[in-house]
Amino acid sequence: MVIDCHAHFVPPSLLDAVRQQAGAFPSLRLVEDGTSFGFSFAGGKPTRPVSKPLSDLDGRLKWMDEQEIDRQVVGGWLDMFGYELPAEEGARWSGLTNEHLLAAAKAEPRFIPLATVPLQDGARAADVLREAHAAGFPGAMIGTQPKGVGGVLDDPTLDPFWRAADELGSVLFVHPVFESGDIRVQDYGMANAVGRITDTLIAASRIIYSGHILRYRNAKVIAGIGGAALPYVVGRLRRNYTLDRDNLGDPDASLSALYFDTLVHDAAVLRFLANQVGIHRIMLGSDMPFPIGDPKPGKVVGEAGFSASEIVSITGGLAQELFVR
Q1: Pairing of strands 139-143, 282-283
Q2: Cβ-count burial of 188 within 10 angstroms (0-12 exposed, 13-18 middle, 19+ buried)?
Q3: How far, CA to CA in Å, does 50 sit from each of 33, 34, 107, 181?
Q4: Is the preceding peptide bond at 289 cis, omega within 30 degrees of 0?
Q5: Dihedral sign, Cα of residue 291, residue 295, residue 298, residue 303
Q6: Rounded (5°) CA angle 262-103-57
Q7: What pairing do the DSSP bridges indicate for beta strands 282-283 and 259-261?
Q8: 128 versus 149: which is more confidently predicted?
Q9: What separation in angstroms does the CA of 126 have from each of 152, 227, 251?
Q10: Cα separation of 225 and 266, whole Å?
Q11: 57-75: burial string, b at 16+ Cβ within 10 Å, e else
């Protein structure tokens, strides 16, 4: 079974529900853009409009068939996670999203859904995660910056969420958000080319040094985009650790506890990633349907010189262990 572990989907039914129920979320404003719409949460900067490919079910299934992908792990869309909403409102917003993601996965069994949780509040995020597991979700996709730009995943107020994820054995896919927090990447398409990398690297490095990766090791944490730059800078992370061992988590032990996708767009880089973290920690990932993703995710795996058994592990074996319950 071939499984794409990294994709995004906004069920059409969710968009309909948002239009119908927008009044129930006083801190939400829909931003109309022709036939589509974006969101403004708590008076913040409007998101991009929901693109058609995010909700195009037929087009997605056709693409999966063309790429010989049997199943796809689908999180929501980071722009509409709504971490800026007040906590109680955010919990209801996550619940609405999860309701429609789960319904979509029940209607189309090729989908494996990842829940959304209100990371603006650790206790509520823990409650929503428990509800999601009870409903059948294997875990959640979480943004790198809870509570808006500059938020951190090692914020002590999120400890209830991390404890719940550890108790439940949740799969947590750490994914960059739209605003990386660095205005220098706003030109040349660098928000996608570079900003997503630095955002993921910083978020993952913090939960490594804070000790979260090892403290909550029963949670299966995936560092998307091939781990961003983590495998490349591990020597530097290690050197920094040796200077302050009493206060920092071990980067080598943490790296060995993380999981990664194949979204690196280069066979030699994918081979390097495997050499650094081990074949058994890597899964096929496309970031479908975004242009910066990999439209032919199996190609880079095939070009990296892996053995037949290694390809089986990367393209579905590991993902089946983590996601299929």
Answers
A1: unpaired
A2: exposed
A3: 9, 11, 22, 22
A4: yes
A5: negative
A6: 55
A7: parallel
A8: 128
A9: 16, 25, 26
A10: 12
A11: eeebeebbeebebebbbbb
278-324 pLDDT, tens digit per residue, is 999 999 999 999 999 999 999 999 999 999 999 999 999 999 999 99
Distance CA 128, CA 167 (A): 14
| Structure-token match 């087009």, residue found | 59
| Tokens at 127, concatenated | 């409650």
How far is residue 73's CA from residue 78's CA, in Å, rounded to a whole number?
15
Sign of the alpha-carbon dihedral angle for 325, 168, 261, 13 = positive
Structure tokens at 53: 């490919």
Distance CA 32, CA 145 (A): 26
pTM of the model: 0.97
**CA-closest candidate to residue 69, choices 246, 303, 322, 285:** 285
| Run of H or E including 174 | strand 171-175
DSSP string, 220-236: EEEEHHHHTTHHHHHHH
Long-range contacts of 210-215, Cβ-Cβ distance < 8 Å, separation of 24 or more: 210/154, 210/249, 211/249, 212/153, 212/154, 212/162, 212/249, 213/249, 213/254, 213/257, 213/258, 214/249, 214/250, 214/253, 214/254, 214/257, 215/162, 215/166
Find out whether 222 and 259 touch, Cβ atoms under 8 Å.
Answer: yes
Cα–Cα dist 248/253, whole Å: 12
114-132: pLDDT as tens digits: 999 999 999 999 999 999 9
Amino acid at residue number 136: G
Q: Which two tokens stand for residue 258?
A: 């993380």
Q: In this structure, are residues 147 and 120 in contact, taking their beta carbons and an 8 Å threshold?
A: yes
